[in-house]
Each structure stands twice: as C-alpha cells, then as structure tokens.
Automatic annotation (TrEMBL):
Protein name, as recorded: Histidine phosphatase family protein
Leader sequence segment: none
Residues involved in substrate binding: R8, H9, G10, K11, T12, E13, W14, N15, R59
GO molecular function: phosphatase activity
Active site per the UniProt annotation: H9 (tele-phosphohistidine intermediate), E85 (proton donor/acceptor)
GO cellular component, one term: cytoplasm
Alphabetized PANTHER family for the sequence: BROAD-SPECIFICITY PHOSPHATASE YOR283W-RELATED (PTHR48100), HISTIDINE PHOSPHATASE FAMILY PROTEIN-RELATED (PTHR48100:SF1)
Amino acid sequence: MAKLYFVRHGKTEWNLAMKLQGSKGDSPLLEESYFETALLGERLKKISFSKVYVSPQKRAIETANVLMEELLIKPEIIQKEGLKEFGLGELEGQLILDAIDAYPEQMHHLRNNPHEYDPSEFGGETFSEMIKRSVVVVEEAVMQNPNENLLFVGHGATLVALIQTLSGKPLEQIRKAGGLDNSSLSIIEMNELGYELILWNDTSHLDSLN
C-alpha cells in the first residue's frame, strides 16, 4: 500500500534559542542537523518516492536536499506554499518566554487547546486556515500520484495539525499526542479506510548519537 512520509526539518538556530519561528522567520539549520538529517536519509534511501513535496522555507528546503543526497532514487522536489509553517504574525522571532508573558492565554491554547486559539491580537494565522492550506497539498498530491509513496518535508506546528487531521482527529484533539521533534519521521498509510497513522514522531535513526 502507498504511504505518506512526513519529516520535520532539522533543528535551527532559533529552535536552539527558544524563539518562535513561523511562516516568516527562517533561521539557519545547526551544523549538527545536516548529519542528523543524513541519518534519516540513510533510513529512507531504499524507498521509491514518486515525489517530494517541501515547504518553500529555507530550513525545509535544506533538509529535503540532504535527504535527496541519500536516496537511491532521486524523485522530483516540488515546493508548496501550503506546507509553510504556522503564521505567527507579530510574534515571529520573539523568545517563547516573552510571548508567554505577553499572551499567556493564547500561548497556552496554541500548545494545548487549538480549538480555542485566537491569534487576532498579534495578527497570526488560525489553525483552521493552516489546516485547510496544508491538507489541500496532500490531497492533490495523492490524487496526482495514486498508489505511490510520497515524501513531505515541513515544519512542526503545521505537520502536527496536518497529520492528525488526516488521521481523523478533530481540531480539539490534534495536539493531544504532542509535538514533533526535529528530524523526526511520521508515516500515514493509505488503505481502503483512508488515512491511517502508523508511525508518529519517530527518531530511532538518531539512537546511535545517544
């Protein structure tokens, strides 16, 4: 059966500094991230992907390029705006702790209660807006590449919402399983029932580093 593979980009300088990094922010990958992503590429190298769909943000593109170096079969890479990270408006680049001090209720909802999250105070994107644009990318990709393995490279918040929505979770439950680690792998299998989540936030390819 065809499978959809989802990879979160490697850790960046802003991730390390605990800064908010959404659809506008784009700090460089850490040097260690290139090695970690290569390990994931080694894990995936024998899989035949029809296409690779990637966010147009630099950290995602660089992650996809490292993966491509390891794959035995080099699929076409297609950039998709719909895979960009969650838009955080005026909070882009701010320290997470500062954002929590300024908007404690909304920062709590961002992590725990997406159905109650309202970013209008700081000009952010809603979960519904982000889910709509990202789900379209996957549905169109599946329609255009039936019964093919597909790889998607993107961002933490967007991929969490996208994967959980595809697997049938309602908005209020999409954060219940937590977030995604950098350089992690999640897999959805396509079967007669639709989308089935079979692997979530797996980083076993990094076990040798511990």
